[in-house]
Amino acid sequence: MDDSGTDSLPPVQYLIMETLAARYRLGEPFWTFPKRLRPALDALQERGLLWWQSAVTPGDLRAHLTDAGRGAATYESYQTPDGRKLAQLREDNRLLERNWSGDRAKLVEIRKLADGLGERNFVSVQRLLYAILDGTDG
Questions:
Q1: Structural domain of 99
Q2: Can you tell me the distance from the alpha carbon of 106 to that of 101, in angstroms, rounded to the nearest whole number?
Q3: What distance in Å separates the CA atoms of residue 113 and residue 84, rounded to the nearest whole number?
Q4: Between helices 81-98 and 104-117, what is the axis angle to 10°?
Q5: What CATH number does the domain containing 9 carry?
Q6: What tens digit of pLDDT does each residue of 67-99 get?
Q7: Residue 25 and residue 73: Cα distance in Å, rounded?
Q8: Residues 105 and 129 in one domain
Q9: Cα–Cα distance for residue pair 65/79, rounded to 1 Å
Q10: Same structural domain, 42 and 85
Q11: Which of 9, 14, 25, 138 is 20 to 30 A from 40, comparing alpha carbons?
C-alpha cells in the first residue's frame, strides 16, 4: 500500500478512496456517492486516482479507481478473492490439458468454448473438462 498516496488526502477524499478500495477488494469495481461529494471526486480525478460518471440513481455519481488509484489504496501484490480463485482454476485447467489423453480436436473445441464464455463461466468449463476426462456426460 502506498500510504503517501492516501494518508495525505483530506478526510473526505481519504474516505472515498478507502470506500473504493474496500469495494475493489470485494470484487466490485464501482461505488456510488451523493453529488454533494463532487468536489472531492473532482479533486481525486485530477490526481488520476479515480474517474467518475453519473450514476443510474438520481442525485448520485458512480466512481471507479484507476490503476494509479488501486496502487495508492491497496498493496501491490493484492489480488481479489475471485482473482485468486480464477488463477487456481486456470492452473487446474492447465494440468487437465497437459494430462489429456483423449481426442486433441475435442480439447481444442473445449478451449474455444472456454474462451468464448469468459471468466464468469470458467468453473463450468472446468467441470466439463473433468467430466470428459472421467468419461461422464457432466
A1: 81-134
A2: 11
A3: 22
A4: 170
A5: 1.10.10.10
A6: 999 889 887 666 666 677 777 777 777 777 777
A7: 10
A8: yes
A9: 15
A10: no
A11: 25
